[in-house]
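Weekly sync, protein design subgroup
Attendees: M.S., D.O., the rotation student, P.L. (late)

Item 1: inverse folding check
M.S. brought a backbone from last month's batch and wanted to see whether the design step gives back something sensible before we order anything. D.O. pointed out we never logged the input encoding, so this time it goes straight into the notes. Structure tokens as presented (192 positions):
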């Protein structure tokens, strides 16, 4: 069995963005295209080949330890974003409020695609899925500024729907409307 299996599941990029200054806001700015480099999307605060470790990996490293950056992009599902919006009492929720790098439609149960899956674009560029992006409280402030009270519901609403973090395996340029094919690891589920 091949290590990575191309599936028949093809999604579409419906939103591209980057967070230019996390200190100012987690809100991402929309783009019509993005260059994917080995360090992520240029100008994106989450980019870089390495990053200081954070609370997500405190069981493995002291906070602030320099580690490989496998969280270069935050990738969300259009369908799950709509479910988050509804749970927050909104008709829609702009991906920028969640600090999204990409929003893809058409890949079912997106937040739970297996780690090490690949998202491959028409030019051959690809992202490696690290793992589920756990919901946090950071988007609440920005959402509340435009939709008072809705941001307070974000963390609970985004549970199991926050998408995944990913890193660039092959460089290229992606555009709104591009297709993206899902490739999954060819292995049985892990048994503890």
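Designed sequence read out in the meeting:
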């Amino acid at each position: 069995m091949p290590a990575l299996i191309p599936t028949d599941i093809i999604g579409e990029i419906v939103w591209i963005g980057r967070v230019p200054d996390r200190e100012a806001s987690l809100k991402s700015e929309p783009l019509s295209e993005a260059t994917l480099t080995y360090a992520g999307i240029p100008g994106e605060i989450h980019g870089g080949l390495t990053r200081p470790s954070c609370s997500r990996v405190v069981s493995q490293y002291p906070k602030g330890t320099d580690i490989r950056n496998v969280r270069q992009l935050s990738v969300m599902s259009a369908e799950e974003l709509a479910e988050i919006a509804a749970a927050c009492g909104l008709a829609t929720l702009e991906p920028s409020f969640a600090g999204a790098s990409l929003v893809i439609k058409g890949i079912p149960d997106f937040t739970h695609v297996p780690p090490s899956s690949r998202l491959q674009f028409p030019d051959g560029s690809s992202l490696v899925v690290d793992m589920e992006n756990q919901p946090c409280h950071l988007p609440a402030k920005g959402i509340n500024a435009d939709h008072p009270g809705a941001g307070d519901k974000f963390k609970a609403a985004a549970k199991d729907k926050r998408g995944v973090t990913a890193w660039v395996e092959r460089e290229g340029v992606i555009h709104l409307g591009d297709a993206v094919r899902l490739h999954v690891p060819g292995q049985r589920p892990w048994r503890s």
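Discussion: The mean pLDDT is 94. Residues 30 and 63 are 31 Å apart (CA to CA).
Action: P.L. to compare against the previous round before Friday.
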